[in-house]
Amino acid sequence: MDYGYGGGNQYNNTSYGGQGGAGGGGFMPGSQTSPSGAKTRDFKDESVRPITIKQLNDAQDMGNQTDFMMDGKTFKTITFIGQVRKVAILETHIRYSIDDGTGVMEVKKWTDSAQKDRIQDGSMPNLPSQDDYVKVFGTLKAFNDKRHVGANFVRKIDDPNEIPHHFLEATLVHLQLTRGEPNAGNGATAGQNGGDSAMYDGYSAGAGGAGMNPKLARVSEHARQVYKFLETQPQGHEGLNVEVIAQAINLPINVAKRAGDELQDAGLTFATEDDGTWAILNMDI
Q: With 0-12 CB in 10 A as exposed, 13-18 as middle and 19+ as buried, what is 208?
C-alpha cells in the first residue's frame, strides 16, 4: 500500500542486500519552495536531521551548493544509515559509496597524516569496510552539480535495531514538518503555523544563542553535568570518553554512563569511536 510518501513497496524492490536505489523508494519531499525575501538562518538550521538518501538527492539546492532545503526547512547537519558498497582509501580522504535502500550517496571522510598512518598499519579501530552497515554524520555538499556528504564520522552499526529506528525517526520528522504535530487542535501544519515540530526541536544542536536547549530541561541533573562538561572542554571531533568525564566531574562510571545514554536518547549527543565516547551534536563540519 502506498501512503503517499514515495514507492509504497520500496522494501520489496530495494533492500540492503539488493538493488540499492531502484524502485524510487524513500520519502517524497514536501514543500521545497524558498520563502520570499531574504533567507534567514537561526540555530535550528544547525539541527541534526535524520534523513534518507532519497531525501538528500531530492533536496532543493538554495543556489550555492552548500545550503539545501527539504520539507520547507533549510538544513545543514544530517545523519543517515546505509550499507557500504565501495570503499576507496585515498591520499587525503576515504571515499565511501553508501546505499540505504532509497538511493546511493558518495561520502567523503577526510583524514589527517596521523589517521592515514593508522589506516596503513591497520591500527585504526572499527574502520568500516565493504558490506558493513554504517551511520553517517555530516553535511550535504555539491561540486559541479554532483552531490556528496562531507562526513565527520562514519560509524559501524553494531546493533541492527538502529536501522529501523533511524528510518522511523526520519519518517516522524518528515511528517511533523509537513503535516504538523499529531492532535494539533486546528490541524495546521508546521509550515502553515510557522513553528517547528517538537521532534525536530529535539535534534537542536545546542543553545545557539536562544537560551538553553529545551531538551536539557527534561534530562536529569547528572545528564546536564555531563552535557556541560562536553560543551566547555576542548576536544577533537572524537569527543570525550566516559572515564575522562566521570573523573573530571566526580561521578561514578555507571552514573556517568547512564547520563550519557540519557543525553543520546534526548538527541543531544552521539557516540563516536565507541559506545563510551560522546560528542555534542553542534560541530561545524
A: middle
Predicted pLDDT at 226: 93
**Beta carbons within 8 Å of 72's beta carbon, 6+ residues apart:** 30, 31, 32, 33, 177, 178, 190, 191
> What pLDDT does 271 receive?
81
Q: Is 197 left (phi over 0), alpha (psi -120 to 50) or beta?
A: beta
Chain-centroid distance, C-alpha 17: 23
- Number of domains within the chain: 2
Query: Which residues form the domain of 78?
Result: 10-165
152 and 284 together in one domain: no
Angle at 257 between CA 251 and CA 262, to 5 degrees: 110
Consecutive sets of 10 residues in the chain, 285 residues long: mean pLDDT of each?
37 38 40 40 61 94 81 88 95 94 94 82 84 93 90 89 92 88 53 43 40 75 92 78 91 92 83 82 49
**Cα(52)–Cα(170) distance, integer angstroms:** 7
Reduced to 3 states (helix: H, G, I; strand: E, B; else coil), residue 243 is helix
Same domain, 151 and 216: no
81 DSSP β-pair partners? 135
In a domain, 184, yes or no: no
- On whether both 138 and 24 belong to a single domain, the answer is yes
Q: What is the pLDDT of residue 280?
A: 83
Name the grid cell of 272.
563516536
For the chain, what is the radius of gyration of the CA atoms?
Answer: 19
Is 198 part of any domain?
Answer: no
**Angstrom distance (rounded) from CA 103 to CA 180:** 26
Given 149, 165, 181, the domain boundary residue is 165
The verdict on 60 and 161 lying in the same domain is yes
Domain contains 275:
yes
Global model pTM greater than 0.70: no
